[in-house]
Amino acid sequence: xxxxxxxxEIFPERVTKLWNEWxxxxxxxxxxLLQIMLIMLGNRRKYIPRNRIRVILWLxxxxxxxVAAVCIGVLSNSxxxxxxxxxQKTKKVIWAxxxxxxxxxxxxxxxxxxxxxxxxxxxxxxLLGLLVQFGGAFYIFLLxxxxxxxxxxxxxxxxxxxxxxxxxxWALRSASSSHFRDDMLPRPDPGPNYAxxxxxxxxxxxxxxxxSFKPVTEPSAKVNCFDPDAPVLEVxxxxxxxxxxxxxxxxxxxxxxxxxxxFFCNTDWxxxxxxxxxxxxxMYDVLYTKASxxxxxxxxxxxxxxLSFTVSTFAAFLLIHKHEHSTIDxxxxxxxxxxxxxxxxxxxxxxxxxxxxxxxxxxxxKAFSCCRLPILLPAEKRWSNSMVQYNLLSLCLKEKPIKCxxxxxxxxxxxxxxxxxxxxxxxxxxxxxxxxxxxxxxxSYKSYVPVSTDLKELIFQHLKEKSNSAKGQSNANAIYxxxxxxxxxxxxxxxxxxxxxxxxWSVEEDFDQSxxxxxxxxxxxxxxxxxxxxxxxxxxxxLRATSKLVxxxxxxxxxxxxxxxPDGIGQMRFQDSCAEAIQFFQDNxxxxxxxxxxxxxxxxxxxxxxxxxxxxxxxxxxxxxAVRLAKYLKSLKTDGEHWSNEKRSEMICDVWMEMxxxxxSQCGWKEHAQQLRRGGELLTHVxxxxxxxxxxxxxxxxxxxxRSSVVVN
Length: 713
What we know:
Layout: H1 2-8, H2 13-41, H3 51-79, H4 86-107, H5 117-120, H6 123-143, H7 149-175, H8 177-184, H9 194-206, E1 211-215, H10 232-243, E2 252-253, H11 254-264, H12 269-288, H13 291-294, H14 297-319, H15 327-352, H16 355-363, E3 386-389, H17 392-396, H18 406-409, H19 412-422, H20 429-432, H21 434-445, E4 447-450, H22 453-470, H23 476-485, H24 489-492, H25 500-503, H26 511-528, H27 539-560, H28 570-587, H29 594-603, H30 611-615, H31 623-634, E5 637-638, E6 641-642, H32 645-666, H33 669-675, H34 682-692, E7 699-701, E8 708-712
Parallel strand pairs: 2-7
Antiparallel strand pairs: 1-8, 3-4, 5-6
Helix pairs in contact: 2-3, 2-4, 2-15, 3-4, 3-6, 4-6, 4-7, 4-15, 6-7, 7-14, 10-12, 12-22, 14-15, 22-23, 26-27, 26-29, 26-31, 27-32, 32-34
């Protein structure tokens, strides 16, 4: 207490008195503003991948709970002080009326219950918080009880606040991994009574009968349950109910595979991706919002009770005598009531314009979107539909230098130290700031581009071709497993390419090494073949551009989303490759102008001897291994004739498609779920699309029950 007094004595007494007078008022208003920010921005992160919105939302999410909880504590402390002044007693009453509104704020908006997946696991902490904060608010209510109209009006707001806080806690519990998984577990299935069947078999055999088993054909279930012309929302929701088990790491059956394939093998790429978008949109709502509560009958009833109680309190507040209260307190009370009603109405508009409501209306042939407000609720935004691009050559050539460090780096001494650090020759003072610089550099060289229709179509056709190759085969499960493990080698072994013997080494190393090798080689060919490509080809430029899109995207995953890829030393390989490229550019600074000249310079280097034999294996750089790969790709022949640019581009594009699919299949469900709150990830859409085509290791039930009857001869 003495320390606190000594600190407060720093400020003038007038300032301290002013803060004591306005502290509660300021905290209450801030709490309301944070709720407005959360409800407005909560759903937007589903389709906005930028960092700034995540930072703002993170600060608002943490600040909202903290401010409301602190305000309840300050209120209880302030109202607990004895005071004989009538004005102070009156102030106590109206301040106590604010307490239940803080419970409403702690309940949070419908658009965000969890900032990250980890928040769902803390539902027990929120349950304890509900009990403690409700107890604190109720204690404030008792302290200020004078039998006045405002005391009575606080009761319905208490009920509304308890409902909102309870909804949030229940939504967090439902989305926690254990409860989410338990809710989807099927009923225990002991299978056919093996002991009884074998008992009958033993009895008949002991009596001298010739006993055998005869398989009984199980009636086949309907497979083609999805009409290719059915509305996207209906198909998406039907598949979501089955394939959401992937997000709990549960298994799927052969029936699920056949049902899904019956739709996706008979539709076009656009509708397939639309269905996947709908499914992931539903998944986002379940994991990060109050969807599990809001879109059920109990949720509708609780919403009606909450809104009606708040509106009735507002109407009664307008009618009661309020002259004894200060103007500023009345304004804040009015803001709290109006804010609560407006936020509740906005939540209802969000609910009515959501895919859940549109699905319900479409089932009753009343699909419409009259409740959508284009400014407040952009229609058909389920994810960002963008992919990040990150390029090694661009980074090493310093095409986008960080502007704020430009003048500083021009100083001679700093410039020399900087290049020594980038080449790994110095670990002085710059090493201490390396993480800050790398973060700024990552932001500077990262760019967003829309996912092109060409890329979506190529992914769809690639997966459809793979799925059709396994359907109907006696060893289909083994083929599907092999397709999941393909990371470029299956493409090189294709009859039309047949170049695995020459290029197999590039896809059989660690996956992160393969990504770096093919990323650099793709760039080298992209910039050096541009002038030589056959102008009569229409498809080649599209394939080349698509290959580069996927190449830069895969490098982004390797460098910035390494948790989505198989374990490895990709970051070390990337850093060493960058250091070697920077050193090469420094040695040839006068001759290099732009990427095209840099690529040509790389290809002129003699790579007859493997870099491993010349340099050893301490440095994990794969730069000149990638140069060797590019040269191999340029020299590919069939029957003594060099491949055309079109054929080579097609093969490179197929390799990248297979690498993309491999990365998607190897990424865990938790990592995919985390990306839903970051604007979505193309890799997650590919992963779910693969599962719909049956290319997944989650299909563990391949036959169902074997029904047999005992036959006695």
